[in-house]
Design a protein that fits this description.
It is a single chain. The protein is an alpha/beta fold. The protein folds into two domains: 208 residues, D-Maltodextrin-Binding Protein, domain 2 (3-Layer(aba) Sandwich), CATH 3.40.190.10; 137 residues, D-Maltodextrin-Binding Protein, domain 2 (3-Layer(aba) Sandwich). The chain is built from ten helices and 16 strands. Helix 4 crosses helix 10. The chain starts with a strand and ends in an 8-residue tail after the last helix. The relative contact order is 0.18.
């Protein structure tokens, strides 16, 4: 039976230098394996951080699956429940779904033995080297690529990215590839001095970290002091008229969001004006803890890669709780070289974040 744990109260993002990888702190004790429950699976005496030795029920088959809340308004536990039920039906796994509070927490959970597997950001791939393995890459309607956008409101005076000099722009989580890092590079390429953001303050404009894609968009809509917002196209395209994307042929060809562009514009969701679209980005990975050696691991990974759209989004699922990807294809670290390229062009290392 799928276990559901909703955990989203912490947004602390602290990066510590560590040999061979990144030591991350910030997981909510008591949500990702704490509460003195050993490894989060049993009834042993833990240290409150999920690092104790539990004597839990069938630990080898208990799989803690941590989920990354990229959008504020989604019920990610409900969305992932059909996947968890499919995995339990196909394997001996007992899947516990845990909603993390931030991008950082998904990676932290793998490093600190508070999870076996995680849905996380593409930026987790370089950040997790040495303790987290890429199982596969999410796909949406056959496509492994997605895009970042920078938008404004139609009645603003902003016509191109260079017009954002001196303005406030909202972005997502500091570790979000499409919500923050790719847009920061886009602004830099437009001639704006972004300093060493998000490791420090930009020079030519005010970049404000909103935490997730939806919040970044909504802050721009509701706050007249914010001139533009960066977000993944999955959060912005429904409010951008489709014809605005026609100048971006890669988006038209590869984006799962193109067909539905503009479909959500109404009195509650105002039209957005597209300023720029990023280069194609690799979709987010499913990652597993490197030292997870339970027999159920192979079963689970094989089932994930074999899952079809009907397994992830069954016909009887309410459309409000549909998962936003339709499959998982085999992938490895080399598929995420574009992430390394973005970091290199921005002059950032994961150890730089503080």
């Amino acid at each position: 039976m799928v276990r559901k744990t909703d955990c989203g109260g912490s947004h602390r993002r602290t990066f510590l230098k560590a040999t061979g990888g990144v030591a991350l702190t910030g997981v909510v004790a008591g949500c990702l394996g704490g509460n003195g429950n050993g490894n989060g699976n049993g009834n042993g005496n833990g240290d409150g951080n999920g690092n104790g030795n539990g004597d839990g029920d069938d630990d080898d088959n208990h799989v803690r699956f941590v989920l990354n809340p990229a959008e504020e308004q989604t019920d990610i536990i409900e969305e992932y429940t059909p996947m968890a039920e499919y995995l339990e039906a196909e394997t001996d796994a007992d899947v516990e779904l845990i909603r993390a509070g931030s991008y950082v927490e998904t990676l932290t959970a793998l490093e600190t033995n508070q999870a076996e597997i995680a849905d996380t950001s593409p930026t987790a791939v370089p950040g997790g080297e040495g303790f987290a393995d890429v199982v596969g890459m999410r796909t949406a309607f056959g496509g492994p690529l997605y895009f970042s956008t920078i938008t404004t409101l139609p009645d603003s005076d902003i016509e191109e990215l260079s017009d954002l000099e001196g303005e406030a722009v909202t972005v997502g989580s500091a570790l979000s590839l499409s919500g923050t890092l790719a847009p920061t590079l886009m602004l830099s390429d437009a001639g704006l001095d972004v300093g060493n953001f998000p490791d420090g303050d930009p020079v030519d404009l005010d970049l404000q970290t909103a935490g997730d894609h939806d919040t970044a968009r909504e802050q721009m809509i509701n706050d007249p002091t914010v001139a533009a917002a960066a977000s993944g196209a999955f959060a912005s395209a429904p409010q951008i008229p489709q014809e605005q994307f026609d100048d971006y042929p890669e988006f038209v060809e590869h984006s799962a969001e193109y067909d539905g562009a503009g479909s959500a514009i109404d009195d509650d969701n105002p039209e957005l004006q597209l300023l720029a679209v990023s280069d194609p980005l690799p979709r987010a990975p499913i990652m597993a803890r490197s030292d997870w050696d339970a027999p159920v691991r192979d079963e689970l990974e094989e089932a994930l890669l074999a899952a079809g759209e009907e397994d992830l989004i069954p016909d009887d699922v309410d459309e409000d709780y549909e998962l936003w990807f339709t499959g998982i294809e085999a992938a490895d670290r080399s598929d995420y070289e574009p992430v390394d390229d973005v970091l290199d062009e921005l002059g950032l290392e994961f150890e730089d974040f503080s």
